[in-house]
Amino acid sequence: MNKLARTTLALGASGLLSLGAVAPAAATPHAASAGTAKISVFHGIPGMTVDVYANGKKMLSDLKPGSLTQPTDLPQGTYDIKVLRAGSAPGSSPLLQRSVDVTSGSNSTLVANLNPGGQPALNAFSNDVSAVPAGKARLTVRHVAAAPAVDVKVNGGTVFKDLKNPGQAQVDVPAGTINTSVVLTGTDKVVLGPSRYTVTAGSNTVVYAWGSANNRDLALKVQSLAH
Q1: Which domains, ranges and CATH numbers included, belong to the chain?
Q2: How far apart are CA 99 and CA 55, in angstroms?
Q3: Nearest in space to 54 (alpha carbons), one of 1, 105, 99
Q4: What's the CA gap between 73 and 79, in Å, rounded?
Q5: What is the pTM of this model?
Q6: End-to-end CA distance of the chain, in Å?
Q7: Average pLDDT, the chain
């Protein structure tokens, strides 16, 4: 179950980190230099409380499923990210491991989730915080659940089709209250929702579909990002 991968968190790529238990100064990047990135973490693996380490330093403790940290400034550089079961010794074999290049000026979220086969995975997503047209809000949906492809409906109309894990799609919508439903692709079978959200002008509302269809614990988590 130990997986090792590498990703670059560039402007528009994706990232990690921040919570009350976070100590940003404790982890020094392997290649530190001036400049920071905005990084957050979403824990979307059901039934598993975890600790998160960066370059051997504990950054997050007892992170429970469904937890989403607020964006935090992290110095640019390369980080060895390890996810361990909560309370495990630092040298224990990690559940997940990934080398992450954090680029100055980026805004990213690192997601621990289930892959389509139900196994733990780490995925990095770009947070689009570019300007939104006047009176509009950005809606981003990320499929990080062990579930089939889905369509996403907003106010009765389909805005995203055939969204697969690990994928995302975004659209600008009129600011205000929206009603959303997640359905199996090509059908009207609702798997999540209907849900009601208030999307604020100029912001990016990110909705994560996470959990497991087989275990019937699918859920939604919302992240609001300001421009």
Answers
A1: 4-126 (no CATH), 136-225 (2.60.40)
A2: 9
A3: 99
A4: 14
A5: 0.86
A6: 37
A7: 88
